[in-house]
Amino acid sequence: MKKISIIALLAVSVATSVMAASVVGSRHDMVFSGFAVGAGGSTEVCIFCHTPHGGQTSVTLAPLWNNTAVASVGTLYNSTTMNFTATVEQVNATDARLCLACHDGGVGMPVNQPNSGDMDPTAAVMSPNALLTTDLSNDHPIGMDLGLNPEGIDPGIRPLATIIGATGFNENPFYGAANTMWCSTCHDVHDGDPLTAPFLRISNAGSAMCKACHIK
Ligand code: HEC
Ligand code: HEC
Ligand code: HEC
Ligand code: HEC
């Protein structure tokens, strides 16, 4: 009897420790950061990115999107030592166009304003390092399908099970059945935990996140 209750307690503490921090109060909380509240003074945090009705359908399978996605990404990263390839079309099918709605330079207006009051985030000023622009030629590559055997394509990349397993991310960080890399491979847009800043899925202390994929 006692043993069972200890196990139950352990299960609760593990669940708490892996629970992600919220978007509320994070750098993605544009109400908290003060610049976003328009004349109506709404306090809705999600509205900059999502709406319950009238979501944007310009990006396939976008989650009830409420901002203006960029039409396309620009030039992609390349080098003579790259083994995986991605096309602009493949990158456009990831979440990149959603992130770049703001990280191209300015936070756009929520397309569908909340009933609780207007929002006007247009005065938001992105710090220079948060400003990626649509030119991704100097950014870590995304959009590549890693498939089920990435180490077979690039021996410098760890096996899939190691990347997603206990020594890696503890969950699959890829997108779709072909295990595609997207911005959300490395970032969790909702998780403002300072221990995994800036919005990373796992801590990159000692470059641990980089090493979850790269044998270096
Ligand atoms: C700064 C923009 C931003 C804000 C603010 C934001 N989200 Fe998201 N959300 C995204 C993006 C981008 C995705 C798609 C990437 C992904 O799934 O991680 C997403 C995906 C989702 C999904 C579908 C995937 C999943 O994780 O289940 C849900 C549900 C969601 N958001 C709910 C919310 C809620 C609720 C809030 C407010 C408390 C919120 N989001 C605030 C950008 C945002
Ligand atoms: C609605 C606008 C909006 C969208 C969409 C958005 N962001 Fe942001 N993001 C911001 C703002 C505003 C900041 C704070 C900028 C600053 O620090 O100057 C920010 C900051 C960040 C930071 C830096 C956090 C820090 O602690 O310095 C990261 C990383 C980031 N965003 C990643 C993403 C990713 C990845 C996506 C898509 C999955 C995304 N964002 C979508 C508005 C947005
Ligand atoms: C391979 C992992 C990886 C991918 C993929 C990735 N990022 Fe990042 N990103 C990082 C890391 C790590 C940092 C923190 C860098 C540092 O600490 O110097 C970062 C930082 C940022 C920042 C904040 C810059 C700063 O210095 O505060 C923004 C904004 C951002 N990423 C957006 C994006 C967007 C948008 C995408 C997709 C187009 C993306 N990231 C894809 C790993 C990644
Ligand atoms: C989820 C897995 C993953 C994570 C996490 C990751 N990478 Fe990568 N990275 C890749 C893949 C896959 C490639 C493409 C390799 C290729 O095609 O040769 C790549 C490409 C690169 C390249 C370009 C290689 C070349 O040949 O031009 C560099 C440099 C790099 N990553 C560094 C980093 C750093 C630094 C971090 C941590 C901030 C990081 N990566 C995090 C998977 C990852």
Structure summary:
The chain has 216 residues and is mainly α.
Q: Care to count the β-strands?
A: 0
Q: Count of DSSP helices?
A: 7
Bound molecules: heme C
**H and E string:** HHHHHHH
Average pLDDT figure:
87
> How far is the N terminus from the C terminus?
48 Å
Main sheet characteristics: none
Helix content: 10-25%
Shape: globular
Contiguous runs where pLDDT drops below 50 for at least 5 residues: 1-18
Which percent band covers the strand fraction? Answer: under 5%
| Helix-and-strand structural type | mainly alpha
For this structure, the quaternary state is: single chain
Radius of gyration: 19 Å
Question: How is the secondary structure organized here?
Answer:
Layout: H1 2-18, H2 88-92, H3 96-103, H4 150-153, H5 160-164, H6 183-186, H7 208-213
The structure holds heme C (4 copies).
Question: What does the model show?
Answer:
The structure is a single chain. The protein is an all-alpha fold and 216 residues long. The chain contains 7 helices and no strands. It has helices at residues 2-18, 88-92, 96-103, 150-153, 160-164, 183-186, 208-213. The longest helix is centred in the N-terminal third of the chain and has 17 residues, at 2-18. The chain is globular. The N and C termini lie far apart (48 Å). The protein binds heme C (4 copies). One heme C is lined by residues 27-28, 30, 48-49, 67, 95, 98-99, 101-103, 107, 124, 126-127, 130, 183-184, 187, 189, 197-199.
